[in-house]
Amino acid sequence: QVQLVESGGGLVQAGGSLRLSCAASTRSFTIDAMGWYRQAPGAQRELVADITSNGNTDYADSVKGRFTISRDNAKNTVYLQMNSLKPEDTAVYYCNARGKYSDFAPGLYWGQGTQVTVSS
After folding, report:
1. How far apart are CA 69 and CA 83, in angstroms?
2. Which of 34, 63, 87, 99 is geometrically suited to a Cys-Cys bond with 67, CB 3.0 to 4.6 A?
3. What is the pLDDT of residues 18-34, one digit of tens each?
4. What are the helix and strand counts (H, E) for the chain?
């Protein structure tokens, strides 16, 4: 089983910054990639950024140049530095972790979500 604990959400004015953290506790599970998704009211959950265990990253076009995803493999923790925030970034942000167990069974886990609100 894998547990993901997110922190760092909150209320910020447009143009401000926030840093989200997501720490994974694992047992017999190797994490291959971690990512951040977000879901605004009435919208589908969408990818924000993703990072693999060897550091390859992927970003949604809407956040490129403003958000940076990073990862501490030793701590199984992923970070999302969000700069130049816009009101349209307002959403619940979810962390996820993908990988496999020692018997190679795949797994996908989600955090509980953290609210990010950007005021204009």
Report:
1. 12
2. 63
3. 999 999 998 889 999 99
4. 0, 11
Question: Is 110 buried (19+), middle (13-18) or exposed (0-12) by CB count in 10 A?
Answer: middle
Alpha helices in the chain (DSSP H): none
Tokens of 109: 């886990």
Dist. CA 105–CA 41, nearest whole Å: 34
The residues, ordered by sequence, that sit 6+ positions from 104 with a Cβ below 8 Å of its Cβ are none
Cα separation of 42 and 120, whole Å? Answer: 20
Question: In this structure, what are the phi and psi dihedrals at residue 88, rounded to the nearest 5 degrees?
Answer: -75, -5
